[in-house]
Description:
The protein is α+β, with helices and mostly antiparallel strands.
Amino acid sequence: MPNNIGEEKQRLTVSPDSPFYPYPKVYSGFYDLSEATFIPRKVIDYLLDMPDAAYMPKDDNKYPRTRLWKYLYYDGPRPDAQPLPTPQQKMEVLFNPEFPTDPPNKEKGYRLFPQMFVKPAQTDAQTRLYVYMGRTIATSDLEVQMSVVFEVWTNYTEESNTKVTEAYSRCLTITQAIMAALHGVNMTGVGSFYYNRSKHADCTDQPFTDKESNVGRRLIMGLTVTSDTKNSPKSHSRLPLGENLFLA
Length: 248
């Protein structure tokens, strides 16, 4: 018996170099969500739809991110007939927490927010999009179902002011464009997006209002995130926003 106890103690000896010292790691392949903090950045970077050496965004309304930006950027009627905002124009309306009350474009203000909430409350007739992480559901040691929340706000005067017969709701048009841009997409280093309540119970698209002057819709997309090796999730590419094209 003493020999068996000694052998068991030796087997469970943990190296001081282990991140779990002094305890042994007995479950392998467990996803620790260490990459989850980078998901909003990857999603925002994708929605910005910036050009790179091999790609140039097309000013064609068949492309969902093109429709998204026209309805998000332009107030008033017929936003779909306006030109696609330039990369500089997009970056001007991306919320900068270092200058929360001083957007570069004073007329447009900030439109895209990679977070849940920003004060003050919206009083201008403009549209805003908030992107943040939702609830996480564990499905196995190697896989979790996460969710990304997209909240679209607009002043009631802009909600149906598009003058487009088939698109009376500006908010619904934006959430549809987001869904079309993400559904079924595997975002490298992040996971695969879906819209399926049987996989993530929070997947939904529903209206809301602040009971005053703003209306909106909340779209929640599911995201399958897996660990591809034991105790080592797939490395995140960690590209800077806009792929380093717009850093000062």
